Amino acid sequence: MLETFNVQLHHLTPTAFLTLSKFCWACVSYGAEPDVDTFCTYYELQKQPKRKKEVRDGKEVEVTYQYGSCTFMSKRNQGVDRLEISFCQKGKWDRGWLEQWFYVKTYGVRSTTEDGKELSEYPLTSRMEEMAPHMCVDPLEEVSPTRKACDQAFCDSVPLLWWP
After folding, report:
1. CA–CA dist 127, 102 (Å, integer)
2. How far apart are CA 6 and CA 42, in angstroms?
3. Residue spans per domain, the chain
4. Which residues of 4-32 are buried (b: 16+ CB within 10 A; e: fewer)?
5. Cα separation, 89 vs 86, whole angstroms
6. Cβ neighbour number for residue 92 with a 10 Å cutoff
């Protein structure tokens, strides 16, 4: 999912993880493996930039933070029969959620090159790059049997999970 939307873990809000978890739970509960194309059919990425004014080199500048600024929302224009597990409104997390946030230590892999130089790599770490997410990803035209099963499972689960 991260590759499909071109984001990294630190770009996502807690709500994004909740949406992904609910989607996976709904599919697995109804006997299907979660499918990226099914998710892309019903959800899009929404960027919620965090801007702050800071003083740098004696000048006030506006800075946009890229951490925890993307979440998954139901795709717009799905019509009256759109599928949605539940809606989530921006800013409804209790204050101080950053105090609850955590980081996972990742270990490096050491190797030696042919000339004897030691290298350390950290394959599970996020790389700090300019964020350029894909906001809306269209699913593949071809519907595989796995996707068909996931579509059916997800659609069957939504009426049971929806509450006004």
Report:
1. 17
2. 17
3. 1-75+133-164
4. ebebbeebbbebbebbbebbeebbeebeb
5. 10
6. 7
User: What pLDDT, on the 0 to 100 scale, is given for residue 115?
Assistant: 92
Determine contact, residues 134/4, Cβ cutoff 8 Å. yes
- As a whole number of angstroms, the distance between CA 106 and CA 125 comes to 7
Q: What is the largest CA-CA distance in the chain?
A: 65
DSSP category for residue 75: P
Query: CA–CA separation, 66 vs 48, rounded Å?
Result: 9
**Each residue's pLDDT tens digit, 15-29:** 898 889 988 888 888
Token pair 């959800």 is found at 43
β-strand pairing of 118-121 with 109-112: antiparallel
pLDDT at 1 over 70: yes
DSSP code, position 35: -
pTM score above 0.70: no
Q: Helices in the chain by DSSP H: which ranges? A: 2-5, 14-29, 36-42, 97-100, 145-161
Integer-rounded Cα Rg, in Å, for the chain is 20
pLDDT band at 152 (very low <50, low <70, confident <90, very high): confident
Q: CB-based burial of residue 75 (10 Å sphere; 0-12 exposed, 13-18 middle, 19+ buried)? A: middle
